[in-house]
Structure formats: C-alpha cells, structure tokens
Amino acid sequence: SSCTSQCYKSRLLLCNVQELQKYKDVLPDQDTHHDVQTLDKTIATLETELSAARTLQESLLNGSPVSEDFKVSESIGRRKYRMVIGINTAFSSRKRRDSIRYTWMPRGEKRKQLEEQKGVIIRFVIGHSAIAGGIIDRAIEAEDRKHGDFMKIDHVEGYLALSGKTKTYFATAVSLWDADFYVKVDDDVHVNIATLGQILSKQAWKPRVYMGCMKSGPVLSEKGVRYYEPEHWKFGEPGNKYFRHATGQLYAISKDLATYISINKHVLHKYINEDVSLGSWFLGLDVEHIDDRRLCCGTPPDCEWKAQAGNTCAASFDWKCSGICNSEGRIWEVHNKCAEGDKALWNSTF
C-alpha cells in the first residue's frame, strides 16, 4: 500500500542521514572545507526529504487528504534543472510581459531549448481573480495559449497579497520542477540569464542558500506612507530597522529552502511586504545569506559601464521606481546597452 511504501521510504531516508552524520563526525582533518560543506548539503537535502516523507506518512496514517504538492513531488526520476525563474506579474501587465518576451526572455522553441539544453525554466507567475473564470482569467488563458509561458498558481491576485503569492509560487515550483535554485523576479526588471546562472552555480554545492541584494530598511509605522508596516510594534522601538533580507526585485533560494516553504506554508507568517516575509521565514534557520550586488545594478549608464568593464550584471532596475521606470519602453534601452548577448547564453555552462 502507499502507506507501507511511505513508511519504508521514511526509514530509508533516516538511515541515510544517520550514516552520513557518522561519516562527517569521523572525517580526517585533512579533508577540505569544501568537502564538509558538500556533505552538509547532502545531509540537508536528505533531512528535507525526510521531513516531507514524514508529513506525507502522517497524512496517510491519519486518513487525511494529501495535498497535490506532495503527490507531484513523489514522482520518480524527475529531470534535474539548474534554476526555475518565476516572473511575478499581474493581470494588467500585458505590455510588461511582451517587453520581456522580446528582450531578455527566449520565446517559443528557444525557450524549450533553454529548458532542455541549459536546465533553465522561465515562467510568468499569475494567480486568478476573486471570481475565477471571469473575463480577466479568460484573457490570461488566451495569452497563455499563444505563448505557453505562464505558471498558474492557486492564489487570488492583489498587490497586498504578494507575500501569499510568493509563498504559493515557491511551494508550487518545487512540486513541479526539481531544481538547484528557485528565483523570483519582478516583471519590470532586466535579467541576464547566463550571468545569473553562473552566479548561482558557484553556490550550488552549499546547503540552505538565500541570495540577493541584502538590505535593512526602516520599519515605517506611519499609516498612508508607501511600505507602511501594520505590524511595526513587533520590530521594537520606533525608528528601528528590519532584519537583513533580500530586496524584492530579484532573489534566489536553494531547493531545500523552497521545500521548507512548501512543507510549512500553512504556518509561515505573512507580513505586508513580501521581501520582509521571505527573510522572516529563514530567521530561525541555519541559512547562508549571500549578498551579491550584481543582482541589483542600476539602469544605464550603471549596468553599461559594468558590462564594458567585463563585470556584466545579472539584474538591472531603477531603485527609485523599485523596477525599471516606465519599463514597457525603457527595458529596450537597458537590453541594448547591458545585455550579455545570445552567444553568452547559448555558449555558457552553469
């Protein structure tokens, strides 16, 4: 039965974790730091799988309904990908999506080649309207039939619900694709895919990685201001700053962290600002925060000068607009001056 096989899988995973822990304890002194961290990642991955298996086992034993996420993640022999890039978008952002399709995101057969040859999945992430199946949802369905580049998630769209959308995106993505990293990017940001892949690939052997441009902004307690924090009292005295977290335009997390979100999604607290929410979910965990400023370059001339100096940016946007200002038109300028070029993408190894 499914319950018996799940019990066996749990015991097998537990034995693997225990054996690796014993091996780590007796590693000779001459073993390198890299070897230890690689072993740590293996243990972390197995522990994450063990946690998921135990959750599923308990559901089966209690006769509780099993979520689709677990059913999908149970599939055997899934292809391994380098990264999944989820582009956060809204119903009203058709022009932004088209501007991305005709600049940094491969379309049609080239996008499929990117998946098959480079292990990179790219999708626009969209939920549904409060009245599912309405005219707005039908417009997205028509757009998806034309381009086939949407990832539809079980989430009611709305700006004030971004924390919930982020949580659902990671939980859904990790159930659909087995990747090293899961990336979230806004639809008014320019991305160089090969550069991003190369940055992430250097961290792929580490466990529990949270990467982005780390910041610590003020906790705003005044109603009516942008980025107002309704739960400001939780962060101490007035004038305090948030804990360090990645800015929301683009960030990446490793598979074990995405799996952690998927398993615990029903109890993870949602703050009003989604980048703060994500950072809060990792506060009590043994997570490595990696600050890489190539993930938050400015638009020309900033990214242009850096590209000319051989330090190509992975992501570019305007801080003052929290994205590229008037991105539907200006993303072309950014792409023309700061893009890594097609050859860089197809000749890259990451």
TrEMBL record:
Membrane topology, as annotated? Single-pass type II membrane protein
**InterPro entries from the entry?**
DUF4094 (IPR025298), Glyco_trans_31 (IPR002659)
Name the UniProt record assigns to this protein? Hexosyltransferase
Q: Which GO terms describe its molecular function?
A: galactosyltransferase activity
Keywords assigned: Glycosyltransferase, Golgi apparatus, Manganese, Membrane, Signal-anchor, Transferase, Transmembrane, Transmembrane helix
Pathways involved: Protein modification; protein glycosylation
Cellular localisation: Golgi apparatus membrane
